[in-house]
Amino acid sequence: MATAASENPKTRLRDLGLDREDAVQMYRNMLVTRGIEERGHILFRQGKIPGSFYTGRGNEGAAVGVSTASKPQDHLCPLQRDMGVHIQRGLEPWRIFAQYMGRVGGPTKGRDGNVHIGDIKLGIIGMVSHLPAMLPVGVGLALSYKIKNEHDRCAFAWSGDGASARGDFHEGVNMAAVRKLPVVFIMDNNQWAYSTPGNLGYNTENPSDRAKGYGIENVIVDGTDAFAVYEAVSAARTKAVSGEGPTIVECVTLRMEGHAVHDDASYVPKEDFETWAAKDPIERTRRFLLDSGMSEDEDEEIRSGVKRFLVEQLEKAEASPEPDPSTAATGVYASPEELDTPHH
């Protein structure tokens, strides 16, 4: 499993083509991601978030690492554990809070109160609930690049370890492999498909090992190491846009909370939580930065700044009005102005 933990931080960043500012931004994006979801728990308990609430605690490093490896012209199809993708691509947190609370300021303008978020201007395709329905969407995007001879564009399509057992996963991967499409498949292997452990979901050592059946490569990476994820995904993207076909990048983590707030995850062994808590992606990144020269005071300034920022963002979201029911049928079709984007 790829990891960068044992290498000199400064050398590591240089080899990856990153500088300290890039690494700090990744760290900050991870802090913002977790901060949003921690506040989401509070909002849910206060009755301000209707329905359910899903989080990606423990997956922040994987999400931010993947998205940082993407380019502005790319499309991304993230899932419910990948909030860090939205943050890295530039979706403002207040709009995410507004989305959860069903306010006009959210990306769906109050028509959805969950993590079905997208913004075509940022290259993010809105999530479809049924997993892994976003994977064939990513394949379709990659096919469009090839048909239109759009070079140096790549699609990123996510699935979980559990969803990789479904038919649309296999159909999408097979088509992309046969046609050598410019797509990178991200498999968030958090080891549990709701309450089903991995050994009951696939008969290989790793779920991405099934890539061999399609004649494509799989790479297994420690999903708590944001820089290892970045390295693996960057290489997969380069390969994809060079016409060499897709790669499945399996990011191994542990889902550190239940499937959603209604699930206490009591079926997950306590010792597993303890083991993976010691590999927390945010703490790993913090230690990496400290080893590369960041001071404790700088770290505190970053963390305090994120907290203040999120307080302001939440206040802005709560000031956003609830939608007017008479507008429910508007926005069904995109306007020409909304489609005036390089990502269309």
How confident overall, as mean pLDDT?
Answer: 95
**Could you name the ranges where pLDDT drops below 50 across 5 or more consecutive residues?**
none
Overall structural class, as computed from helix and strand content, comes to alpha/beta
Distance, first to last CA: 36 Å
What is the name of the CATH superfamily? Thiamin diphosphate (ThDP)-binding fold, Pyr/PP domains
Number of alpha- plus pi-helical segments: 11
Largest sheet features: 5 strands, parallel
CATH architecture: 3-Layer(aba) Sandwich
| Strand/helix succession | HHHEHHHEHEEEEHEHHH
Got a strand count? 7
Cα-based radius of gyration, to the nearest Å: 19 Å
Q: What is the fold-level CATH name, i.e. the topology?
A: Rossmann fold
Question: Which CATH first-tier class would you pick?
Answer: Alpha Beta
The strands making up the biggest β-sheet line up spatially as 1-2-3-7-6
| Number of separate domains | 1
Helix content: 40-55%
Shape, principal axes of CA atoms? globular
